[in-house]
Design a protein that fits this description.
256 residues, alpha/beta, Rossmann fold, 2 domains, 4-stranded antiparallel β-sheet, 10 helices, 10 strands, globular
């Protein structure tokens, strides 16, 4: 297996991260290092604790034990919003968009929040117009310039998922956590998601949870396998594909 990033080189690190719900231990002493510019896949069987780990990282769930550091500074005591402001940003398995607002307004709101502006009070002022102008740039980057003025509720689901990635990028992440970015997207629309993931800024560290092995093995330089809340192994896609433990507990077949 390849070596994980050393703590000194890592932009995001956890040590001993643990969480129990009742009698169910969903995170068991997880030590994780994510290097700058990483492209790391996170896989595991249903119930392995993948989304729980992302929730712990982003402050949606409070750990029972362990630490989380971003660029060497502890963030596990910070709110989720403060972690976003520090550069730890996620997308969700189910999108969380403002469906009655336009695509442009969705990104402009995110930009206003990034800048600490009360966007409801700002609308139509000069600072709001600056947010809107930047929103148009972000929409162009993710291939949505043609639907900038469309309500989100009018957009095909695949384009809504693209918009969520655009919002995440507008937050200027240092670390981007993608939770099944193509989940629920029809196959005819999924290629646009895959292409956007391939074009993510190279200086942003990316951790992707994904059940689609084709996507993971194409995207990731390294893959972590999570089983029953603990890391089973970590390695390159080729190493993971031929690992007999991985095949027996998750893949069930060779993935090459």
């Amino acid at each position: 297996m390849t070596d994980a990033a050393t703590p000194a080189a890592a932009v995001l690190s956890t040590r001993g991260l643990s969480k129990t719900f009742g009698a169910l231990q969903v995170a068991r002493g997880i030590d994780l290092d994510l290097a700058r510019s990483a492209r790391l896949g996170l896989i595991g069987p249903n119930g392995a604790g993948k989304t729980t780990l992302v929730n712990l990282l982003t402050g949606f769930t409070e750990p029972d034990a362990g630490t989380i550091t971003l660029d060497g500074e502890r963030i596990d005591r910070l709110s989720g919003d403060e972690r976003v402001r520090r550069g730890l940003v996620r997308t969700h398995q189910l999108n969380t968009l403002l469906v009655e607002e336009t695509a442009r307004e969705n990104i402009a709101v995110a930009i206003a929040e990034r800048e600490g502006l009360g966007w409801r009070m700002l609308r139509y002022g000069a600072r709001w117009r600056a947010c809107v102008a930047e929103a148009d740039e972000r929409l162009a980057e993710v291939g949505l310039a043609d639907v900038a003025g469309h309500r989100v509720s009018e957009l095909p689901y695949g384009r809504q998922r693209l918009l969520e990635i655009g919002i995440a990028l507008a937050m200027r992440p240092r670390v981007l956590l993608l939770d099944e970015p193509a989940a629920g997207v029809p196959s005819g629309e999924a290629h646009a998601i895959h292409d956007m993931i391939d074009r993510l800024p190279p200086d942003v560290a990316v951790l992707m949870i994904e059940h689609d092995m084709e996507i993971v093995f194409r995207f990731a330089r390294e893959i972590i396998v999570l089983v029953q809340g603990a890391i089973l192994t970590r390695g390159t896609p080729a190493q993971i594909a031929r690992d007999p433990q991985v095949r027996s507990v998750y893949l069930g077949r060779s993935v090459a």
